[in-house]
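Summary for the funding panel

The consortium committed to producing paired sequence-structure records for every protein in the target list. Below we show the first two records in order, beginning with the earlier of the two.
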Amino acid sequence: MTAKPKFVEADRERLVRSASVSMPRPIVIRLTKFIHVPRRFRRQVTNTFLFARDGYQCQYCARPASALRPRESLTRDHLVPLSRGGTNSWTNVTTACSTCNTRKANRLPHEIGMQPAHAAAEPHFVHLSWAVRRLTPIQEKYIRTFYGAETVAELEALR
């Protein structure tokens, strides 16, 4: 027997159909059983999520993406370069404009006198979701319920 998810809220105007079943489109689902996801299967570092985590601005010179010149772009910088044993993990990558990334090259930030504005850390998936797409008021209600008003305030600051 498999566990069934419980639909807490559904959009009754939009239906989800299969070959034999038609039901309202779920908006909020309550899981009846939690399955731990091993760390290696958690959210991978992608430029989209990395840039969102860092507020779409270079962590070295603080220029936002909108202030970059035509041939510049935001890039992924490895704090400890891959050539020196660094990894492609949340705690070892930061957002850099192409100019700063080229200047840093394969050196450590302190070797060239460059320090990122914020420490590299793995963000909470809720923060990433909020940063790359806007959550609906219904989703915000449940985030407030389960993660608290402080988390909602942090997410609203990302807008």
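The next record, for a separate protein in the list, is shown here:
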Amino acid sequence: MNENNINAAGIDTGKAKLDVALAGGKARLQIDNALSGWRELATWVKRHNVDRIGIEASGGYERGVVAYLREKGFTVILFQPLQIRAYAGFRLQRAKNDRIDADLIAACTAATTTVRQAPDPRFQAFCEHLTLIEQIEEDIVRAKTRLEAFRDSRHREILASEIKRLKAWRTAELKRLIAALRRHDDLANRLTLIESVPGIGPRTALALLIRMPELGSLSREEAAALAGLAPYDDDSGKHQGLRHIAGGRERLRRSLFAAALPAAFQWNPSLVALYVRLTGAGSRTRSP
């Protein structure tokens, strides 16, 4: 695809400001990263007949403008930072500031050959809620680790109380999230279907549904790659290296790892046999 065939805009995201550029440096705009700025941006891109808008994921500061533009009917491509860095490397571009980054994102947007369908907006709130639950679980693990290291009875009592509080909070948040999902008939049916698979409990089912909403429309190879579980080649000439997993959705992979590891050690005969075969062939178990 020739970049010049697509009238694209790129947005460099900051906490307070958005720098916007048209591909080819045809026009620029700087606005507040707030509703008033998003309205100005929508008018600006419409006036310039923009076909698509690219923006880099930036710690969540991009969420508001992305949701607003998609609601207004604009095609928005959300790039991962790795994609933008790789494109800069391809162009041998080292200079970096907000204006340059906006130009780079606009050029990358114009050159993109595949534009995927925007995700279901319902999942943004569900993802945030699940992240909260995951962070509570991480806090529980940290508190348990501290408990093992302390011998003072008062300190141990405080830590035990904190673990109990965190566990109750986790249980309550899981119930709230499941209830929120089940208010949508289509999502409730999908959650029930995932839970019907032997060995998958509610917590793992939530992770699969929320972290991989594409499930059901993917091949098994695509699903493995998205989860970061696809073994990639490391071959060159006569060298045949070990296959390694890489990339993918880290939080989903952690949830799957937490479910699969005990199953492969003990209670699922098929996974136990697979684990023995893979480790016998030289594969190593490692934390995600």
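Regarding this second record: The beta strands are 8-13, 17-22, 28-32, 52-56, 76-79, 231-232, 235-236, 239-240, 244-245. The chain has eleven helices and nine strands.
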